Amino acid sequence: MTVRVRFAPSPTGHLHIGSVRTALFNFLFARHHGGEFILRLEDTDTNRNVAGADVQFLDGFRWLGIKWDEGFDVGGPYAPYRCMERLDIYRQYVDRLLATGKAYPCFCTDADLAAERELAEREGKVPRYSGHCLHLSEAERKARMASGEPFSIRFTVEPGRELVVHDMIRGDVSFQSDDIGDFVIVKSNGIPTYNFQVVIDDVEMRITHVIRAEEHLSNTPRQLLVYEAFGFDPPVFAHLPIVLDEQRKKLSKRDPHVLPISTYESLGYLPEALINFLALLGWSPGGEQELFTVDELCQLFDLDRVGKSGAVFDVEKLNWMANQYFKALPIAQAAQMVGDQLERAGIELPPHASGAWLEDVVSLYQDGMRCAHDFIELSKTFFQRQVEWDDEAQTLLRDPSARSVVEAYLAYSRASEGDWTPESSRERFKRVQAELGVKGRQLFMPVRAALTGELHGPDLQKTIALLSREIVIERLSAALAC
């Protein structure tokens, strides 16, 4: 048997991080078992569909490196892969249920159904459909349909049954049919509901394993009834643990600490970092290793090590992992990504920048960066003509001994001839040390404060060389004039 799994998003918004985790687990499971991964678009909620969302899904998955074998963009042997293009297929299955009495037209209005729900709630019962239209005569049904009265199609649920979902992660989970009631499988607009459509599509597309979010577990007994009505064997189910925020509540699409995939891409995160992080969100490979290539993940991943408990989206862990990947980049690639960010932000290189200048500046900050966009804030001292001194820097620069160091270094800078390099800067500091008898923090920190406006930062000698002689002299002079 060839393993066939699918990810079937609804184009109702951006690609949420929890959905990406589900898609990734499907992809890894398929590759681990030498199977096929299908990308289907469940676009039947026409009122909520967002134009262009389907394209964003494709772009996001391509950036992440999640590859599919069949889908709504590339086609495949079971096309079409957009649900709204499959309405004729669903209709054939609906007609079979109607012909065998396993489904029936329901003429109840929204107001009728709301009244039923309110009555059940007042009586302390689980709200479910009363079955009113189940008992209409065939003649009345035909007459009302012929008159143009709106109707939906409901599936007939046999009462008094226990429905057991066999789940690879959660074991057997039982539901009672009496808690379900006859449910709608086709809305009054002719579009099938999720619990019907998903069964037909999974059957038609030969899906062997359904790996999806925990929130779909409660839908599964309805889907089992549909499989049973047609005599189909259900696929293997695996319901993934819910993704939680750091307060252990369900992760919201609007959580400010969790970004859409397109935003991570635009900020210059590495897709490998996101894949690595999401793979460990509910799955454990065992051992102490935390960084994995996609090939390693495909080799190791299986559902037997996916947990039941909610998986916390740990922002600090993501930041750490993103940093591990970014600082391991070849400097040329990191500088290229940073260059893209600078261009997008409308920031030009300073006039004295030439050759490998940007690579040299990036190398000062790369070890502390999560993404290319971090560079803009970290390196602003290199891209602004005038420096702004923070409170600590101003306090230090008011100290007479600190001012003496700045004055001495400025004098040697003005007198400097030859190349402006880190080595020549070290020589100037040696002269200041010999002249004033200071060393360590008392020697270097005043100059750093005057040049960058801060007491701490990357390698000072490289910073001075990359700022250029003109800017160093200008900034030291400005600091002394305050």
UniProtKB/TrEMBL annotation:
<dbReference type="InterPro" id="IPR020751">
    <property type="entry name" value="aa-tRNA-synth_I_codon-bd_sub2"/>
</dbReference>
<keyword id="KW-0547">Nucleotide-binding</keyword>
<keyword id="KW-0479">Metal-binding</keyword>
<dbReference type="InterPro" id="IPR020058">
    <property type="entry name" value="Glu/Gln-tRNA-synth_Ib_cat-dom"/>
</dbReference>
<comment type="similarity">
    <text>Belongs to the class-I aminoacyl-tRNA synthetase family. Glutamate--tRNA ligase type 1 subfamily.</text>
</comment>
<dbReference type="GO" id="GO:0005524">
    <property type="term" value="F:ATP binding"/>
</dbReference>
<feature type="binding site">
    <location>
        <position position="253"/>
    </location>
    <ligand>
        <name>ATP</name>
    </ligand>
</feature>
<dbReference type="InterPro" id="IPR045462">
    <property type="entry name" value="aa-tRNA-synth_I_cd-bd"/>
</dbReference>
<feature type="domain" description="Glutamyl/glutaminyl-tRNA synthetase class Ib catalytic">
    <location>
        <begin position="3"/>
        <end position="320"/>
    </location>
</feature>
<dbReference type="InterPro" id="IPR049940">
    <property type="entry name" value="GluQ/Sye"/>
</dbReference>
<feature type="binding site">
    <location>
        <position position="135"/>
    </location>
    <ligand>
        <name>Zn(2+)</name>
    </ligand>
</feature>
<dbReference type="GO" id="GO:0004818">
    <property type="term" value="F:glutamate-tRNA ligase activity"/>
</dbReference>
<feature type="domain" description="Aminoacyl-tRNA synthetase class I anticodon-binding">
    <location>
        <begin position="351"/>
        <end position="480"/>
    </location>
</feature>
<feature type="short sequence motif" description="'KMSKS' region">
    <location>
        <begin position="250"/>
        <end position="254"/>
    </location>
</feature>
<dbReference type="InterPro" id="IPR004527">
    <property type="entry name" value="Glu-tRNA-ligase_bac/mito"/>
</dbReference>
<dbReference type="GO" id="GO:0006424">
    <property type="term" value="P:glutamyl-tRNA aminoacylation"/>
</dbReference>
<dbReference type="Pfam" id="PF00749">
    <property type="entry name" value="tRNA-synt_1c"/>
</dbReference>
<keyword id="KW-0067">ATP-binding</keyword>
<feature type="binding site">
    <location>
        <position position="108"/>
    </location>
    <ligand>
        <name>Zn(2+)</name>
    </ligand>
</feature>
<dbReference type="InterPro" id="IPR008925">
    <property type="entry name" value="aa_tRNA-synth_I_cd-bd_sf"/>
</dbReference>
<feature type="short sequence motif" description="'HIGH' region">
    <location>
        <begin position="9"/>
        <end position="19"/>
    </location>
</feature>
<dbReference type="GO" id="GO:0005829">
    <property type="term" value="C:cytosol"/>
</dbReference>
<feature type="binding site">
    <location>
        <position position="106"/>
    </location>
    <ligand>
        <name>Zn(2+)</name>
    </ligand>
</feature>
<dbReference type="InterPro" id="IPR033910">
    <property type="entry name" value="GluRS_core"/>
</dbReference>
<dbReference type="GO" id="GO:0008270">
    <property type="term" value="F:zinc ion binding"/>
</dbReference>
<dbReference type="InterPro" id="IPR000924">
    <property type="entry name" value="Glu/Gln-tRNA-synth"/>
</dbReference>
<dbReference type="GO" id="GO:0000049">
    <property type="term" value="F:tRNA binding"/>
</dbReference>
<keyword id="KW-0862">Zinc</keyword>
<feature type="binding site">
    <location>
        <position position="133"/>
    </location>
    <ligand>
        <name>Zn(2+)</name>
    </ligand>
</feature>
<dbReference type="Pfam" id="PF19269">
    <property type="entry name" value="Anticodon_2"/>
</dbReference>
<dbReference type="InterPro" id="IPR014729">
    <property type="entry name" value="Rossmann-like_a/b/a_fold"/>
</dbReference>
<protein>
    <recommendedName>
        <fullName>Glutamate--tRNA ligase</fullName>
        <ecNumber>6.1.1.17</ecNumber>
    </recommendedName>
</protein>
<keyword id="KW-0648">Protein biosynthesis</keyword>
<keyword id="KW-0963">Cytoplasm</keyword>
<keyword id="KW-0030">Aminoacyl-tRNA synthetase</keyword>
<keyword id="KW-0436">Ligase</keyword>
<comment type="subunit">
    <text>Monomer.</text>
</comment>
<comment type="function">
    <text>Catalyzes the attachment of glutamate to tRNA(Glu) in a two-step reaction: glutamate is first activated by ATP to form Glu-AMP and then transferred to the acceptor end of tRNA(Glu).</text>
</comment>
